[in-house]
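A favour, since you know our structure tokens better than I do. What I am after is a single protein written out in full by you. Could you add the entry underneath, on a fresh line?


***
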Amino acid sequence: MENLSNLDYASYLKGWIRTVPNWPSQGVMFRDITPLLQNPKTFRMLIDIYVHRYMLEEVDLIAGLDARGFIIGSVLAYELNVGFVPIRKKGKLPFTTVAEEYELEYGNATVEIHTDACKAGDRVILIDDLIATGGTMMAGYNLLKKLGANVLEAATIIELPELGGGQLIRDAGLDVFTVCSYDGH
């Protein structure tokens, strides 16, 4: 049996993240969390890191960004016994929404949230799988602020510091928690 007590959990989990060169476009090093999620031990370790971080906090909701933020966020919300709010790509939500446009590392996009997804003063953790340029996370943060939420922290599995997104978010006044970081390619 493998003894993980002497291992750095972030390094261990990082070993389960696959790098896919030139996807979805030339020059992009895509960090694929699928192998990490496929392994029950590493998936549980990941969720437990977040649970232990937030279990003593007063959290009302977990807001997950489309689409991989849904996977992590919904499980975390379940474990913390709080609600889950999806922040979706444009045109995917059936009720009245507010929208925010942003730039990605490789294009532009718009995300939306239902107007009744949260109420003023709700304490929210915003979660996604990765911060690259920070556009998606900032768009989600802006949407939650428009609805009056108090966003406690942005949480991700991965940060790509060379792309500046984590710093952009921190400069906007939102704390950022990431499990592992990739410098360079």
